[in-house]
Specification:
Elements (H helix, E strand, L loop, with lengths): L1 H10 L4 E6 L2 E6 L10 E3 L7 H13 L5 E5 L6 H7 L3 E11 L13 E4 L4 H14 L8 H8 L5 E6 L5 E7 L6 E9 L8 H15 L4 E4 L4 H8 L4 E10 L2
Parallel strand pairs: 9-10
Antiparallel strand pairs: 1-2, 2-3, 4-11, 5-10, 5-11, 6-7, 7-8, 8-9
Length: 247
Amino acid sequence: MSALQAYVRTTAPRGRETERIGPFLATFARDTDHPMLNYAIPDDGATASAAEIAELTAAYHRRGLLPRLEFFTEAAPDLEELLVARGYALERRIPLMTCVPEDFLDRPAPVGIGLRAPLTEADVRGLRSAQNVAYGESPDVSDAEVASTSAFGERAVLVEDTATGEIIGGGVALEVVDGTAEIAGIAVAAAYRHRGIASAIAAHLTRLVHEQGAHTAFLTPGDEGIATVYRRVGYRPAGECVHLSLS
């Protein structure tokens, strides 16, 4: 678990401003106030005083942001209780799943569905728009979103209906760091769900990072129902991730 939390502390700050506050690494996105892109990550085994939690809260308030944390509970098992005592509330508790090469199960895309890397700006916009809609957000895509998604290169995959060329989903794999890589942003348009497409996306990206040297791929599905999709690819439960915030 320590290795996975260390991976997040390494990759989450990329492209963000950061501030070290007591046992916390606070991250702040430069171009959005979206809560999922502005959060703090604790050190392994972190505990925090009331003053340190208050300082962390103030750092987000100064920037007009919601104070938030995301972390794997086993990496800092005493921290959730301390935060709740200072007014933070649990947003959600979600599974953490991992896949090692020997457990990997390939899942091809269904007939009529193609997976490929985005090749043009239009591809990137289509991929990001499909992800936004699948996660309940606006289909509009900013130039900053285009730039951030383009940076993934071959570690991004879009899904298209081969009959129409419509982009209907996709996902990304973060970089491999010390043999670990995260799979994220897997999304499928509502009309195409329950056909094995999400499993095919996960398989494509997991195979890619394994080939690039990752001995552990991990992801955090939104709930146990979605976790079933990733079990078909060889992912196994490995813990949980908590999101807490102070509204």
